[in-house]
């Protein structure tokens, strides 16, 4: 059995909607919350050796799970929260909450993550998509990362060994972040905390936090705002099934209660097609869709 001897929580037929801020997704065959990177690596390698599907997720704030569920093992990094503070730097495991780290750095008078105070994801996920807001991006803080590759190997990469761009990291689709070494600048503590309070106030006022969502669905095209384009095209408040374009912010698709993955994907495609026809602009999504449906169950998981 792949999970024999492992510390950490294990669940069978676990509802994926509980692992997503969108609250969407069918049952996962097996979900495992490793408590150490060593346990995560051991399970990953065992699963690969037996050709059992395995994937790693964080806090599910940027993920769309399939209605059919997922086979194999879904590893959740949220118990990997080790942290070690240095001199205007920190080493932190992938499951640590980005917003919490931003607040803690601010309390120390360290600047660099003010923009992230309201972002609900984990450190690993934030790096994989180069999370940003209010003109800031996490890439400006990264010194190095420890990464897990598909073959089960772990590699430590310095900042110049991989690339960042707008909502892009070259590791995405190839590796997963296990730990990051981040740097900060010395700043004025009260100003940093004030900036974070203002960002949180703007977020509450402008985003539909009262309904399940996955943040901004589309990247901003060069020279444009995706939200403004979608609003101008008349999509605010429109829905397919239980998925609805937020009336508060048009770049958010909210779950009104019974939304399915199929509803969200259909709404995304309809918006993309309409924007292409009306403005000759191709919208690209920020979210990650995991669309591998369930297959035959295995007994050796």
UniProtKB/TrEMBL annotation:
Q: What is its EC number?
A: 1.3.1.98
Reactions it catalyzes? UDP-N-acetyl-alpha-D-muramate + NADP(+) = UDP-N-acetyl-3-O-(1-carboxyvinyl)-alpha-D-glucosamine + NADPH + H(+)
The free-text function statement in the UniProt record for this protein reads: Cell wall formation.
- Which InterPro entries has this protein been placed in? FAD-bd_PCMH, FAD-bd_PCMH-like_sf, FAD-bd_PCMH_sub1, FAD-bd_PCMH_sub2, MurB, MurB_C, MurB_C_sf, Oxid_FAD_bind_N
The molecular function terms of the Gene Ontology recorded here are: FAD binding; UDP-N-acetylmuramate dehydrogenase activity
Q: Where in the cell is it found?
A: Cytoplasm
Q: Which Pfam families match?
A: FAD_binding_4, MurB_C
The Swiss-Prot or TrEMBL record lists the needed cofactor(s) as: FAD
Catalytic residues? Answer: 167, 216 (proton donor), 286
Q: Which GO terms describe its cellular component?
A: cytosol
Q: What NCBIfam families does the annotation carry? A: murB, PRK13905.1
This chain's source organism reads Desulfosporosinus meridiei (strain ATCC BAA-275 / DSM 13257 / KCTC 12902 / NCIMB 13706 / S10)
Q: What is this protein called?
A: UDP-N-acetylenolpyruvoylglucosamine reductase
């Amino acid at each position: 059995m792949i999970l024999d001897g492992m510390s950490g929580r294990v669940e069978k037929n676990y509802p994926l909607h509980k692992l997503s801020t969108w609250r969407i997704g069918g049952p996962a065959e097996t979900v495992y919350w490793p408590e150490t990177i060593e346990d995560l690596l051991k399970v990953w390698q065992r699963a690969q050796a037996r050709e059992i599907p395995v994937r790693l997720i964080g806090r599910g704030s940027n993920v769309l799970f399939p209605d059919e569920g997922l086979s194999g093992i879904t590893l959740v990094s949220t118990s990997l929260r080790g942290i070690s503070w240095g001199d205007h730097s920190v080493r932190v495991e992938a499951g640590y909450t980005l917003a919490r780290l931003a607040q803690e750095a601010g309390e120390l008078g360290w600047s660099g993550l003010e923009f992230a105070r309201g972002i609900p994801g984990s450190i690993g996920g934030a790096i994989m998509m180069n999370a940003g807001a209010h003109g800031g991006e996490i890439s400006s803080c990264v010194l190095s990362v420890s990464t897990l590759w598909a073959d089960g190997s772990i590699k430590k990469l310095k900042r110049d060994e991989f690339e960042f761009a707008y909502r892009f990291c070259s590791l995405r689709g190839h590796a997963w972040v296990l730990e990051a070494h981040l740097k900060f600048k010395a700043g004025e503590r009260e100003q940093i905390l004030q900036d974070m309070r203002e960002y949180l106030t703007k977020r509450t006022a402008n985003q539909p936090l009262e309904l399940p969502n996955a943040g901004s669905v589309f990247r901003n095209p060069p020279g444009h705002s995706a939200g403004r384009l979608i609003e101008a095209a008349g999509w605010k408040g429109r829905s397919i099934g239980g998925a609805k374009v937020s009336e508060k912010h048009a770049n958010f698709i909210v779950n009104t209660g019974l939304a399915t993955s199929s509803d969200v994907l259909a709404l995304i495609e309809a918006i993309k097609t309409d924007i292409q026809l009306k403005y000759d602009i191709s919208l690209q999504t920020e979210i990650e869709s995991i669309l591998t449906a369930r297959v035959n169950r295995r007994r050796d998981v």
